[in-house]
Amino acid sequence: MSLHFDGEIKITKINMGPYNNNGYIVVCPETNEGIIIDTPAEPEKLLSEIGNVKIKAILITHGHQDHLVGFAEIRSKVGSVVGAGVDDIELLPTPPELGLSDGAVIQFGKRRIQALSTPGHTPGSTCFLVGNHLFSGDTLFPGGPGKSRTPEAFRQEIDSITKKLLVLPDETAVYPGHGDDTTIGEAREQYQAFASRQHPDDLHGDVSWLES
Fold this sequence. Notes:
Number of strands: 15
Distance between the termini: 32 Å
Radius of gyration: 16 Å
CATH class: Alpha Beta
Strand order of the largest sheet: 1-2-3-4-5-6-7
Helix content: 10-25%
């Protein structure tokens, strides 16, 4: 577990499950209202960190099962609405109350978190932006994009990353669905190195900005 607090937002990051997943609790410190981002295995780890925070929504970055193993338990214990990208709704164990399109905004306390539609890893992959904090799911990691299943999906993911994420300020912190954090500035620099090289038309799968 790690804690990030910049005076505007309190972020608790919890490492969960066998695949190094991250679950997040994002809180408005002025009102103690918050949201949960993703529901991996070992939901008790996340639930134990909620304390007296009033959870207003559970937001799902995409519909892959490693992000949903704890969904039923967390949803039943928290009892708040669920939001997910409109094109991943059918992948969730039960339908969410909120089908999120690009630009959708969820209010929690005095803060607003915005959904950014970033298809590629899955059709409904969605990142969430609050202030200068980006929750990137499996779309963007330190060193590369999330795994893509086809060349077409990879090109779609690159389009999402370049048009929706790398346009954010350099100092924007990036909190991915697995592993360590990064920043938009670091990701942009690495992507530019990748983009400066020639690549096969069928490139997809696990891609590294610096090695592929």
